[in-house]
Amino acid sequence: MTQETTNPGSVRHEVLHDGAVWRVVLDSPPANILDGTKIAALTALFEQAQKEAGLKAVIIEAAGKHFCFGASVEEHLPDSCGDMLAGLHRLFEVMLQAAVPTVVAVRGQCLGAGLELAAFCHHVVASPTAKFGQPEIVLGVFAPVASVVLPGRVGRGLAEDMLLSGRSLDAAAARTAGLADELAEDPAAAAMAYVAEHLLPKSASSLRFASRAARLDFQRRFVADIRELERLYLDQLMATNDATEGLHAFIEKRPPVWSDS
């Protein structure tokens, strides 16, 4: 039995296997931008997931050819970035609190906040043509969540490379590095197969405890570090000329003119 709810232009939510599995779809192709509307919808879903005793897995995927091009650049501007960051960081804290196993299916571009969302999941399935990148530095800013999450996924050296260069990894490199756990021509089907084989036979209650146990140290560190990085971003980075220059240059589709200040 399948139940479906839709937030137009935002997030589609399907209930599968009598409530044991949720399928959550970012539904504004081609870019599937993680704007405030999507972030709020995802947060509400994981707040509800925390209350669903029989829920064993949440599968996250996206409509269209690409997973996500990242967060809304317009919402990164000084007048709105405080609310945007607070909302985004709360989403990840709620995901940790819910402790529901999450499996993500990635096709095409997986960038910025989209990569942060994917890397935060327990199991990442990617298509062979997927691309993973944190291009925030190209816009003169940095990625707080990725700064905490990526070193644990790929090691400090590669995480720093991605965060400082803004370059993307192809699917094969992401698989080798541990950013992708599995490659499949149809990542959505492979994600569902992983859930059916490895999670559905288990106790929903025990899966939550196992998730909490596996992420105990990570959760403590994430909550502490993300607060500090949020202040660094808002109080110091956004006071620089280059942060706003990079964002405006992207919106205006022109090369940035850095002042190094």
Descriptive keywords:
261 residues; alpha/beta; 2-enoyl-CoA Hydratase, Chain A, domain 1
Give an overview in words.
By secondary structure, this protein is of the alpha/beta class. It has one domain (3-186): Alpha-Beta Complex (2-enoyl-CoA Hydratase, Chain A, domain 1). It has ten helices and ten strands. It has helices at residues 36-49, 81-98, 113-120, 144-154, 156-165, 171-177, 187-199, 204-214, 216-236, 241-251; strands at 3-7, 11-16, 21-26, 57-62, 102-106, 109-111, 123-126, 131-133, 168-170, 182-183. The strands form two sheets. The protein has a seven-stranded mixed sheet, with helices on both faces. Strands 6-8-9 form a three-stranded mixed sheet. Helix 1 (36-49) runs parallel beside helix 2, helix 2 (81-98) runs antiparallel to helix 9 (216-236) and helix 4 packs antiparallel against helix 5. The model has no long low-confidence stretch (mean pLDDT 96).
| Main CATH class | Alpha Beta
CATH homolog superfamily: 2-enoyl-CoA Hydratase, Chain A, domain 1
The third-level CATH topology is 2-enoyl-CoA Hydratase, Chain A, domain 1
- Round the mean pLDDT to the nearest integer and report it: 96
Distance between the termini: 57 Å
Low-confidence stretches: none
Inertia-based shape? globular
> Which strand order does the major sheet show?
1-2-3-4-5-7-10
Please state the CA-atom Rg, rounded to the nearest Å: 18 Å
Number of distinct helices: 10
Main structural class: alpha/beta
Order of helices and strands: EEEHEHEEHEEHHEHEHHHH
For the biggest sheet, the summary is:
7 strands, mixed
* Tally of strands: 10
Range of strand content: 15-25%
Using the 3D structure, state the CATH architecture.
Alpha-Beta Complex
How many individual domains? 1
Percent in helix:
40-55%
